[in-house]
Here is the input.
Amino acid sequence: MPAEFRNEPFTDFTNEENAQAMREALEKVKAQLGRDYPLVIGGERISTEGKLESINPANRNQVVGRFSKATKELATRAVDTAFETFKTWRNRPAQERVDLLFRVAGIMRERKHELSAWMIHEVAKTWAEADGDTAEAIDFCEFYAREMLRYAGDHPLVQVSGEQNDLDYVPLGVGAVIPPWNFPLAIMAGMTVAAVVTGNTVVMKPSSDAPTIAFKFFEILEEAGMPAGVVNFMTGSGAEVGDVVVDHPRTRFIAFTGSKEIGLRVNERAAKVNEGQIWIKRVVAEMGGKDAIIVADDADLDEAATGVVQSAFGFQGQKCSACSRAIIDAKVYDSMLEKIVERTAKIKLDDPTAPGTNMSAVINEKAFKSINGYIEKGKSDGGRVIIGGGSDGEQGFFIEPTVIADVKPGSTIEQEEIFGPVLAVIKANDYDDALNIANDTQFGLTGAVYSGDEAKLERARKEFHVGNLYLNRKCTGALVGVHPFGGFNMSGTDSKAGGRDYLLLFLQAKVSAEKVGATTSRRADAGTAI
Ligand code: NAD
Here is the structure.
């Protein structure tokens, strides 16, 4: 039995030895920027004419990696290859798949800073944010490996005389794994290993903004001994080849994390039965958020301001869990604004490779324009920019941490996911009003309440309709196993990644009932499956 699961500790970069290790990793990665990477289908490396480039958001002239774009034919071949590989992979003992994940976790632990350094270059994460992403990826491997052992074990049924009844969890088939760029290692790896450890095979299509870190992870899977064709690595346009993989009649499930728009598209396409298809496709879709922190009149305002600022601006506000709305009781509104501004002013916006940087560039030009558009819209709708608002797209896609006060409930920036460093501050008449404003959204991912009154916190437990509620703490930073993660309403299917129910989404239960003599037990003779 493996040791009890423990979260991977975060690295303390104030320790000079750790800082030096990270500097070395950054140098090592810098020397490898701009290389070409292939598609990998059934273990075969394939280059195509069409290329896409992954760019450093903080240094837009720096190419991090150059990738082959899959054609529709190759996307089809990737699903067919995964389908063939499934015939053998599904029958491997669970212990073998579990051991693969433990080896993957071990390699990632050894190369922790190198993996983080790739993310620092590819998506402009700061040292601490990249380190958290890598730690979470390791956690997913360690956690799901243990979970698989649990699912492969016995699941007692009520027994009747004359029968031996068993329930076994069996895999689904071929999955399309479609991750976002914002946790380009953790979410990508988490969805992939959950599918693989349960006995499925996959076509993994990383985001075009973060394919290099996905390829580095794919290489680790190979190094750890994953058979060819279990994970097929496919880069290319989401719209072109994404649709092909989702539509393919041999695709059995889709594990998607990304925006509401694409999640709904995937869900709709997956619902259509195509020629030759003999199942209903399963869709696991984790989507956007419009997360709020409520600050009640009896809150510890210093704690609350720190929580709001950390949740709003960590990784440039590009977390699905980011606080994009601070809903503050009118009685403490002005003093909270002051404290929020004070803390925001201390954020250092800079190159992510520098150790002291707290915030860096947003992911790409499209996001840069869209976020700036939301800042303008916030102003024209009557909001007051009390700090930030500036941006500089010359060298990279830098946008200042921006706080917009006096935002009206129901207005655009109070309702739509901005996915950038913009905090809307809303004044609530009282706690009732604050809860109403918080819930008046199509999303329901994370939320937090700061209050010194246990009755108010209890009301939030019952009435604040989010998948992940935090009380007197920030609304970001979910830990695997500790805070299983997933949202309500348009935030997705509430899959609770990193929780005990997650692997069930990649499995189906098969029950077998055998007529036997009263005392014979097939299982007792045969031993367990693993
Ligand atoms: P996105 O929806 O633009 O892209 C997600 C993935 O879908 C990418 O790999 C993309 O290439 C792919 N894709 C695009 N078109 C496709 C198509 N037609 N068919 C199949 N795949 C297609 O999202 P993003 O910008 O990468 O990520 C940001 C979004 O993700 C935000 O909305 C954020 O809230 C959300 N997110 C949610 C969670 C969660 O757990 N709920 C976690 C992280 C991010």
